[in-house]
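[job 4471] stage=fold_predict status=RUNNING
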Amino acid sequence: MNSEIPVKRIKTSKIVYVLPTDTMMKVEEVFETVPIHHILVVENEKLRGVISKSDLLKVYKKAVNEGVFPDRSTILASDLMTKNPVTLDTEDTIGLAADIILANQIHSIPILNGDQLSGIITNHDILKYCFK
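[job 4471] inference complete, writing structure tokens
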């Protein structure tokens, strides 16, 4: 495996996103209909955050512990998302992406081309590249 290849060669370019004002119900609908584990939160063509399936699990877990199920129509994507996620540039290397994923125990990194969202790279993309 050549870890010096730029991430633009293996990133997922089809960007699945929600708006910060979309509800938790909309986020759940996206996860149910698209086979992904991370949704980007975008506003005015700018990355605002990332929502993972784990983020939703935290809400469910809290609800179970407190015995009160939240109104999913009032919880917004901006409430669920990880704000200011780690990002990489399209020219950064696959090796750097792997190092960041491992060091931060995360599973995805949004990819930017300058300040424009270009895609996302996941640990699955890296594994696929390594063993393809």
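[job 4471] summary: The radius of gyration is 16 Å.
[job 4471] exit 0
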